[in-house]
Write a structure and sequence with these properties.
This protein is an alpha+beta fold. The chain starts with a strand and ends in a 10-residue tail after the last strand. Helices cover about 20% and strands about 15% of the residues. β8 and β9 form a beta hairpin. Bound molecules: flavin-adenine dinucleotide and iron/sulfur cluster (2 copies).
C-alpha cells in the first residue's frame, strides 16, 4: 500500500494536512483491511455464509439474542442494529456474550437468564438510615467552564472544569434516592394514619377503594393527575380501607417509615444486576 507524505499546517487555527511533495511510501501487505469510518459497511462479509442482509445491507440480527441468521455468528454494538451510543453497544455486547455462552453450552439462546434483583432494608435505627435522605430544594449547580477566549481558540482545551469538592458534595445532595423504595406491609399496619399526617407531599391516603381508577385518583389527599404513574394500592385493611400511595410525588424522605409505630413502612434499597455471561447458572 502506498501512503502519501503530508505535514500538518495550521491555517486560522485549523489543522490541515498538506502534501510534502516527497515520494510516496510503500508498505508491502498481503491484505489491507479498511477499518475506519462512522458507517456500517459489510461488503467484506461473503454473501454465501448464511448471514442474511436486509434492504439497508445490514445483517438481520435479533434484538433479543443478537444472533444473526447464521447460527454461529452474533453481532453487538453499532454493527448489530445500527449506530447508537457506547452504553447501548456495551449492553448489546453483554447480551451477545450471553447468547454465545448459552450456544456453546448447547442451551436454548432464546431462554434468557433473568437479572438479579434484591430489596434490602436501609433502616439502621429509629432515626438512622443507611442512605442520605436529606431533601434539598437546590437547583442544579452550574459546572464551571474554562475561559471562553482560551477554549474557542484552542480546541484541545477542555471546556468543562468539573466541580470543586464542596460543590460536588452539594450537587450529590440533590440525589432523589430513586433506588430507595417505600415498601408497605399490610399485615403490620394498625391504620393510625401517622404516615399520612407526616408525609410532606401528602402522597399517602387511607380511603375506601373505587372500581374506577380515575375516581380513586381524584379522591386522594392530593389528586394523582399524572396518569403515566401507576398508583400503589394495598390489599384491603382491617377497617375496609386501602392505603393508596402516589409514587409520582414521593421524595423518598423516609419520614413515613420513621413515624410508623409498627414498621409497616420500610425504606428498601433496590439492587439490580444485569445478567452476565458465565455468571449465572442457566440450568
Ligand atoms: C463523532 C461521534 C461521536 C460520538 N459521541 C458519542 C458520545 O459522546 N457518547 C456515546 O455514548 N456515544 C457516542 N458515539 C457513538 C459511539 O462511539 C458508538 O456507538 C460506539 O463506539 C460503538 O461501539 P462498537 O464497539 O459497536 O463500534 P466501534 O467503536 O466503531 O468499534 C468497531 C471497531 O471495529 C474496527 N473495524 C471495522 N471494520 C473492521 C474490519 N473489517 N476488520 C477489523 N476491524 C474492523 C473499527 O476500526 C473499530 O475499532 C459517537 C460516535 C461518533 C461517530
Ligand atoms: S418517603 Fe417521604 S414523601 Fe415518600 S411517602 Fe414516605 S413520607 Fe411521603
Ligand atoms: S404509620 Fe404505620 S401503622 Fe400507622 S397508618 Fe401508616 S403504615 Fe399504618
Amino acid at each position: 500500500m502506498y501512503f502519501e507524505k503530508v505535514k500538518a499546517e495550521y491555517v486560522d487555527g485549523k489543522r490541515k494536512l498538506i502534501p510534502t511533495g516527497e515520494p510516496d511510501v510503500f508498505y508491502p501487505a498481503d491484505d489491507v483491511i479498511i477499518a475506519i469510518g462512522q458507517e456500517n459497511r459489510f461488503e467484506w462479509i461473503e454473501r454465501d455464509l448464511g448471514i442474511e442482509f436486509d434492504k439497508w445491507d445490514m445483517p438481520v440480527v435479533s434484538p433479543e439474542t443478537f444472533a444473526s441468521t447464521a447460527p454461529k455468528v452474533f453481532f453487538g454494538g453499532d454493527a448489530a442494529l445500527g449506530p447508537k451510543n457506547v452504553i447501548t453497544a456495551v449492553a448489546q455486547g453483554h447480551q451477545a456474550a450471553i447468547s454465545i455462552d448459552l450456544y456453546c453450552n448447547g442451551l436454548d439462546i432464546s431462554d434468557r437468564p433473568a437479572p438479579d434483583t434484591k430489596l434490602f432494608s436501609t433502616k439502621m435505627g429509629i432515626h438512622e438510615w443507611a442512605y442520605d435522605n436529606d431533601v434539598t430544594t437546590d437547583n442544579r449547580f452550574i459546572v464551571p467552564q474554562a475561559d471562553k477566549k482560551e477554549t474557542l481558540s484552542n480546541r484541545l482545551k477542555e471546556v468543562e472544569l468539573g466541580f470543586d469538592l464542596a460543590t460536588a458534595f452539594k450537587e450529590a445532595q440533590r440525589c432523589l434516592n430513586c433506588d430507595v423504595q417505600t415498601v408497605f406491609d399490610e399485615y403490620k399496619c394498625i391504620e393510625c394514619d401517622a404516615c399520612m399526617d407526616i408525609c410532606p407531599t401528602n402522597c399517602i391516603t387511607f380511603t375506601t377503594n373505587e372500581d374506577d381508577e380515575n375516581s380513586l385518583r381524584m379522591k386522594l389527599l392530593v389528586p394523582a393527575i399524572n396518569q403515566e404513574q401507576e398508583l400503589l394500592v394495598s390489599d384491603t385493611l382491617k377497617t375496609g380501607k386501602v392505603m393508596v400511595k402516589d409514587e409520582d410525588v414521593c421524595l423518598h424522605c423516609g419520614l413515613c417509615a420513621e413515624r410508623c409505630p409498627t414498621a409497616a413502612w420500610d425504606m428498601k434499597q433496590f439492587n439490580y444486576n444485569t445478567a452476565k455471561a458465565g455468571h449465572l447458572c442457566y440450568a
